UniProtKB/TrEMBL annotation:
Database matches in PANTHER family: CONSERVED VIRULENCE FACTOR B
Domain S1 motif, first and last residues per copy: 151-211
InterPro entries, alphabetized: CvfB_fam (IPR014464), CvfB_S1_2nd (IPR048588), CvfB_S1_3rd (IPR048587), CvfB_S1_st (IPR039566), CvfB_WH (IPR040764), NA-bd_OB-fold (IPR012340), S1_domain (IPR003029), WH-like_DNA-bd_sf (IPR036388)
Domain of life: Bacteria
Gene Ontology molecular function: nucleic acid binding
Name of protein: S1 motif domain-containing protein
Gene3D superfamilies listed in its UniProt record: Nucleic acid-binding proteins, Winged helix-like DNA-binding domain superfamily/Winged helix DNA-binding domain
Amino acid sequence: MINQIGTIQTLEVLRKIETGYVLDGDILLHHNETDTELEAEQSVDVFLYQDKKGQTVATTQLPSIQINIYGWAEVVEVLPHLGVFVDIGTSKEILLSKDDLPLFESVWPTKGDKLYVSLGKDRKGRLLAIPATEGVFERELFEPAHENLLNETISGRIYRTDREGSACITEEGYRGFIHHTERKEEPRLGELVEGRVIEVKHDGTLNVSLRPLKQHSMGGDADEILLRLEENNGIIPFSDKSDPEDIRGTFNISKAAFKRALGKLMKEGKIEQRDGKTYLISK
């Protein structure tokens, strides 16, 4: 444990030099990494990391995130060939490898998103940010939700995303799952999303929808259908009899939502249906 990078240590000042201080183990504490004047034989709490030369150095900026200690870190840079760099609260920004990110870059976190991480090391001994697993969230942050949250609006960070859906966690520690049918677009890892609780499960977790209520979503779905009609010379090969999977694959909404939107447009006299197709009515 002594002088292990990625941890906070209490070390003694051996001597002062022009560029800073030499601590136990000949570790350099640069003037830029402390705002306190130190004296020889004084003990100081420091966080240890490696500089660009691979040497172990110290800072008095003490992060909450360390080896095997988790916390929220903000994404500060995205490099597609490497991964993303996160701010753990020191001058040293830490890489979270692309190997620990989703396969598709479209759902990678962007600058300003936050990830729940600890620190680890790569094969060369360099510090890496390590994302928390499902077990870590359950052990460290999980709080069972109450029944009175049903239909309430909540905000949460996405901490897992895949084809089936996305998992999020709120500031209160409630864990939510967003099924792929309850979102128009797949949210990014680390993104803060706002959704509506559609089920409080027996284990205290939530099912969440990122879709608006039916009466609110109808107008948006209708506008999208109109846009499709305008882009396709006033005709689309869909009607209220179309296959639900074909509708979802094209419009990313359920057949029920599609039928509601068509009904709205027909009531307004903007469209008509013939032979399994929908036509825009020219005014």
